[in-house]
Amino acid sequence: MNDTDRRRHLRRAILTVVTTALAITGAVATMYAQDDLTMLEDTVEGPYALAATLHVADPQALSVLVVIDRQDSGDGYALRLSPARVAIERIVDGTATEIGRARGYGGFEAESDLEMTVRRDGWGIELILNHEVLARAYDATLSGGQVGYSVQGGEIADPMLQPLGGVYMTDDFMRAADARSTWEPVQGTWKTQSLRVDEQSDRMEADKSANAFSYWGKAGDGPAITCSGYWFWDNYSVSAAVRPADTDPLGLVVYFQDTENYILARWTSALSTEDNADRLQLLSVVGGVRSLLGEVPGGHLPGQWYRIELRICDGLMQCLVDDARPTCSARGSRACTARAPPGPSSTASPSRIGRSWPRTSKNRRPASGSSTPGAGASTAATCGAAAPATAWW
Length: 393
Known about the structure:
eight-stranded antiparallel beta sheet; about 45% strand; Jelly Rolls; 2 domains; mainly beta; 1 helix
């Protein structure tokens, strides 16, 4: 090989090395490669939820990147959303590793607005779009840091960081009929009343009586539903002392989004003549379409008091009657809905809502409802992730 050939060979070798180096550097750079990130705050400590409206301008070009727990070194978690891919990545030392599970979104439409939520709670990371969990992962490699986002083919409007904490609410309904309540009726007729059924009960006043009061509900064209709570509630239990007035179904609701989307524990009467009589069911209805998640035999009796509790934690649901071991359980991942026929009234008495079971690294005890003798009737409920609490009759 002469000098000319040697120089040519050396130039090719140098060019190859430089090209390879550029390719490697480019791979690291594209981990956050999009428009410049919009950072919300310098440092955010969990648990928290990032809520925003995602406006889709061009579905084909849509590419969303949300970064959480980002460190000064560039380490962090990246949540990616596009028509082709949904993923959660852990980025450490310039290397991106996909973690958890994810599924695609049904379809993006031009000039549409979608509710988007990113949750960071304990070890958990979730990406929720229009109340559907698209991606979930558990990782404690990084904790605390910056939160930011970038979008192509659309924009993110009104981003808000919501601190998360323990969930606890209790209500004994001991108030005047016209007093302000934590419950907001959605459907049907609801009112506070005394548990006494004698002729003096209508003259009793909440601030002058030691007798227990209750929350009475009556269905109309659809189920009677009342709600309480906040959109960021997640992983909790709700319990109430209930008494059915007749043979119609009663139940507890969690993760209430609207009248066609929530999760329901539905309990029918042992004396009912309907096809689904004498059973306890866990139902999920999305967009008005009902799905049975699980059921066990056994129904309620009119006029009898019961303590009913519904627990939900990371997609696992359990329903207990009279503080017994889990009577009915199932797994699910979406919010749901069910419909009850119009019928007689029911009543609910002291109800309690609290955080469910120990989750991730946190050691929280489950909330236990305390029944009050002679209190409650029918069903009351609560809402969860991105929804208020609820009762269903």
